[in-house]
Amino acid sequence: MTRIIAFVTLIFLGFAALGACGGESGEPTTGSSAAGSAPGTSASTPKAEVVLSGLRNPSGVSFSPQGLLTVCDSGHGKVIVVEKGKPRDQITGFATEFWKVDKESGAKRFQLGPLTALWKDSVLVVTDGGVGDGAETLAFFEHPGDAATGRRSPPVKSLEDDPSKPGEGNLTGGSIDPNTGEIFLCGHGDDSKTWILRYDWRAGALEKWASSDDNGITVNSPMQTLVESPDHLLVLYSGAGGKEDGLVVRWDRKTRKPLKSWTLPGLVDPMGMARKRGQDQLYLVDNNWALTEVKSGKLARVSLGDEEAAKVEILPLDLRGPVSCAFGPDGRLYVAQLGVAIDAENGEVLAISGL
Ligand SMILES: [Ca+2]
Ligand SMILES: [Ca+2]
Questions:
Q1: What gap in Å lies between CA 288 and CA 272, rounded to an integer?
Q2: Most buried among 52, 206, 213, 220, using CB within 10 Å?
Q3: DSSP state for residue 210 in the 8-state scheme
Q4: Which residues line ion ligand 2, judged by CB < 5 Å?
Q5: 217: CA distance to ligand 2 center in Å?
Q6: What is the whole-number distance in angstroms between the Cα of residue 279 and the centre of ligand 1?
Q7: What does the alpha-carbon distance between residue 98 and residue 103 come to, in Å, rounded to a whole number?
Q8: How confident is the model at residue 33 (pLDDT cuts 50, 70, 90)?
Q9: What is the DSSP code string of 48-116?
Q10: Which helix (H) or strand (E) holds 15?
Q11: How far is CA 37 from CA 12, 34, 218, 323, 350, in A?
């Protein structure tokens, strides 16, 4: 289990570290310079534009009902909203923690705070990954302000039959059902179970929705949920860091059982998943996780067919440690990525057109 925990943590860190880039001040900036496009690409190939930089280990990206880009600047412990091209601090003051502290040197790595931020109408729902497993909650905000002002859900504690196991943490990869408001999240606490979590508004509780391990899914590190339909939930697993073992699983929302899974040939550590309205295909970002550096990542167009393996088309685009992605109302794919280094102000969000 220790190995699994380490792995999950690595993946998580990679996710959080994604956004650290930017100006010397550490403040987020926006820019319009073209960046990230592979050389020799034509007008028909994807093009990337930097729309937000200066982030420290960024994490989840999403959009408000009004279409405003919403980003977890995780290492800075805040959530940023971009309106008319200008970033503003929406919620600040979240706790942060370092994922790894070297026992010998004391060196700290991967500063993490909020990992997912989603809107339910005018309420911003944020996970506070910067506290310990078993203490993490959802926080609800009706106005901009300090993290302490948010109403909190109860945390998800450890398994009842073994109090020694950690509670659920690293509440990441959230998605929301636009009709019911249900929120699904990936938990990284009890790795012997690898829970998918659900927030039920009526009950006001975050519950252990389904255990991947109990359902025969041995690949670890769920990183992104995606409400596919009233009947189906997709979950992306990135598996072991640096190993080509990622998986997409379609779950039956009524029975809470997996219906089908697909391997992802050519992808190493996929962490972000989005579907463009009106398209059947998925877009996945591959972080290509490593503990010591931020490696080149990939963007892939993925088709889930009848075969065991998904059809994976790698798109010609240079990414650096991508961790999360979401389509905006303008039809572009917004990708949060770590940038050239973790724990630095060089994380950014790219807007990718031509998909
Ligand atoms: Ca945590
Ligand atoms: Ca992997």
A1: 12
A2: 52
A3: E
A4: 239-240, 243, 245, 269
A5: 14
A6: 35
A7: 13
A8: very low
A9: EEEEEEEESS---EEE-TT--EEEEEGGGTEEEEEETTEEEEEEE----EEEEE-TTT--EEEEE-EEE
A10: helix 2-16
A11: 26, 8, 35, 18, 11
pTM: 0.88
The class level of CATH for 2-32+52-271 reads mainly beta
Output the six-digit token pair for 117. 């931020």
Kindly tell me the sign of the dihedral angle through the C-alpha atoms of 312, 317, 321, 323: negative
Ligand nearest to the CA of 241: 2
State both tokens at 337. Answer: 């990525």
User: Where residue 30 falls among pLDDT bands split at 50, 70, 90?
Assistant: low
What is the mean predicted confidence (pLDDT) over 302-328?
97
| Cα distance between residue 317 and residue 39, in whole Å | 9
CA of 135 to the centre of ligand 1 (A): 8
Q: How confident is the model at residue 9 (pLDDT cuts 50, 70, 90)?
A: very low
- pLDDT tens for 106-162 read 888 889 999 999 999 999 999 999 998 889 999 999 999 999 999 999 888 765 567
In total, the chain counts a number of residues equal to: 355
Q: Which amino acid is at 222?
A: P
Tokens for 328, please give them.
Answer: 């905006």
